[in-house]
Amino acid sequence: EPEVTQTPSHQVTQMGQEVILRCVPISNHLYFYWYRQILGQKVEFLVSFYNNEISEKSEIFDDQFSVERPDGSNFTLKIRSTKLEDSAMYFCARNRLAGENYEQFFGPGTRLTVL
Amino acid sequence: GQNIDQPTEMTATEGAIVQINCTYQTSGFNGLFWYQQHAGEAPTFLSYNVLDGLEEKGRFSSFLSRSKGYSYLLLKELQMKDSASYLCAVLDSNYQLIWGAGTKLIIKP
After folding, report:
1. Binary contact (B95, A108; C-beta < 8 A)
2. Who's near A32: CB < 8 A, 6+ residues apart?
3. CA torsion A30→B24→B93→B91, rounded to 10°?
4. Burial code of B65-74, b = ≥16 C-beta within 10 A, e = fewer?
5. Which distant-in-sequence residues (6+ apart) come within 8 Å of A43 by Cβ?
6. How many CB atoms lie within 10 A of CB B93?
7. A108 to chain B nearest CA, in Å?
8. How crowded is residue B84: how many other Cβ atoms within 10 Å of its Cβ?
9. Segment B44-53, tens digit of pLDDT
């Protein structure tokens, strides 16, 4: 199976700064997801992205968040003005089979620390 | 609201069998997943059930009863490497994965 890769593995930023988390490279898949997991807590759905458009988003995914696929391969999650409570692991995921909406494979995650 | 319940922590002995239960109440149902998550790592897919019954995959089996809103993950011949958190997640009517808080499984020699 092609892997889901994420960069960076760790990101430390100051409160109020913008961060961009990347999921690279992915091809031939239509469904992508972003999740976050605050340390010691449950995984939380942020957003799903289908065919280069947001499909679903949760209450967490407010206007501070955005996703895009700028060059057709990289899939990014941007947090415009980070808050302390944004500190978490952020996972990108894709479906095992292109076009199918279940059995998601997760990337290794980006650990975001907001100071 | 949507709710997924599973025990916080369980302890079992190497070589034994353990059953981790999950009950759910969600808006719609498009399948139930079990994931394994080692500390500091990403969740890895274990099983998917959408029809009632038992799905067996090696040492791991997963059961679903949609009418009861209930599933369990059965792990046989436990090994030390099975020490991890086991996450139950339901795909709701919007095809969003709703996650339980996970069950931390501790394996003792």
Report:
1. no
2. A23, A26, A48, A49, A50, A69, A75, A92, A93, A94
3. 10
4. eeeebebbbe
5. A35, A36, A37, A91, B43, B87, B89, B97, B99
6. 10
7. 5
8. 20
9. 989 989 999 9
Instruction: Measure CB to CB from residue A108 to each of B42, B98, B100 and give the nearest one.
Output: B42
Q: Residue A18 is encoded by which pair of tokens?
A: 């913008």
Letter for the amino acid at B30? N
Average pLDDT of chain B? Answer: 94
Q: Which of A46, A102, A111 should be substituted to probe chain B, the one whose Cβ sees the most B Cβ atoms within 10 Å?
A: A102
Whether chain A has a CB inside 8 Å of the CB on B42: the answer is yes
CB-based burial label for B99 (10 Å; 0-12, 13-18, 19+): buried
pLDDT tens digit at each of 115 positions of chain A = 556 889 999 999 999 999 999 997 666 666 789 999 999 899 999 998 887 789 889 999 999 999 988 777 788 999 999 999 999 999 999 876 644 546 788 999 999 999 9
Q: Tell me if B103 sits within 8 A of B9, measured CB to CB.
A: yes
